[in-house]
Fold:
Amino acid sequence: EDQVTQSPEALRLQEGESSSLNCSYTVSGLRGLFWYRQDPGKGPEFLFTLYSAGEEKEKERLKATLTKKESFLHITAPKPEDSATYLCAVQDAGNMLTFGGGTRLMVKP
Amino acid sequence: KAGVTQTPRYLIKTRGQQVTLSCSPISGHRSVSWYQQTPGQGLQFLFEYFSETQRNKGNFPGRFSGRQFSNSRSEMNVSTLELGDSALYLCASSLSRAPDTQYFGPGTRLTVL
Structure:
């Protein structure tokens, strides 16, 4: 059974204070690892897809990396508008996503 | 390009009733997946439809069912509603099956009284 664990559950940062979110996973036959951002009351918004260990993707202040056991979402100089819940999910041989519990990020001005 | 749309956005039902939720995928997307999101359990996979056939099913009771139409639009149905069915129901679409990025709709907030 696929499992995804995200840490920390919640993270408070000051504006400009860089940090990293962790996503540890076990999956049989990883087809892809996905990062989503979710604002309260809304559906998850796609951020990145990573397919193999060593792969990195960047978008504005966010950078996602992938190893064989975990993925990191690095946030550089965050702004208050980056406050959201960040979700990690793995995709196995089917088209099913298994999600972690998410990290709730709060960035204070 | 229009995103995934879900209707209705909000729904209030009472125990024992049944409900049907609708999802229109992004144009050209043929795979539709459904998820249930609750504060306690997080996001959990319900089922996936591709070419009008259910391809995957999560660990939910038979009260939860769905279907997909020839235009890729999908509906999910929950019969004999229970209080624990209160949740945000999310639909996601992708061009094809794995590996492919799934794009989510805004969700339907179901409250069971």
Notes: Chain B touches chain A through 29 residues (CB under 8 Å). Chain B is about 0% helix and 55% strand. The longest strand of chain B covers residues 42-50.
